[in-house]
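Help wanted!
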Amino acid sequence: AQSVTQPDIHITVSEGASLELRCNYSYGATPYLFWYVQSPGQGLQLLLKYFSGDTLVQGIKGFEAEFKRSQSSFNLRKPSVHWSDAAEYFCAVDRTEYGNKLVFGAGTILRVKS
Amino acid sequence: DTGVSQNPRHKITKRGQNVTFRCDPISEHNRLYWYRQTLGQGPEFLTYFQNEAQLEKSRLLSDRFSAERPKGSFSTLEIQRTEQGDSAMYLCASSVNRLRLGEQFFGPGTRLTVL
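Answered by r_m:
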C-alpha cells in the first residue's frame, strides 16, 4: 500500500530565508507525486507535480521539488520565503498518471517570522 | 468562478441526524472525488466517480455513508445517523481522466460538526 510521511509537523523560517519541506513515500512502482498547499479557509492548491523525466520540477509561486528515487523522497524547496507562504503543505502520491486517488501525508505547517 | 464548489460550507448537526453535502465539479471534468480531513491530518480518500459510475470506495466509507453522481455532473455525499466521529472537513475534487492530466482540483470543503 502507498504511504506518505512528512516528518516535520511544524516549521518556522524567517522571511527571506530558504525553505525545505521533507516528504518520503512508500510505493513499489513508479510514483506520481504532488505537493499541495492549503491556506485557512481555502481549498487545496496544487504547487507542482512529478510524473516522469527531469527529477527537478518547477511549480508555482517559486517552489521546486526534487524526486530522488534512491531515497524515496520528494522534498519541496523555495530559495526565499515570503510571509504569504505561511500555510499548510501536503505531499501526496498517486499510483497512476490518469488521476486516481491521492494518498496524502499528514502535512507540515509553515510559519514565517518577520 | 469556474472552480469546484461545495455546499454548504459549514454544517452543524446533532448526533443521529442525517446530513447531505453537494459538490459541483469543474464542468468538463469527468472524475469526481470525495476526501475527509480531520484536524492535524491530511485528506483521506473516501470514494471517486468516473462520470456517473462509482469506481472505488474506501474502507472508511461505512454503510452510513453514501455518495451519488446521478448524471455525471454534481455529486452528493450523505451521512446517515451522524456520530461525533464524523466531525471533519469533507473535501471534493475533480479531474480530467487523461494521461498526465490527473491533477485534482479541490473545492473549499464542507466543515461538519456533530454535537
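OP: Thanks! One thing I noticed: Chain A has no helices and twelve strands.
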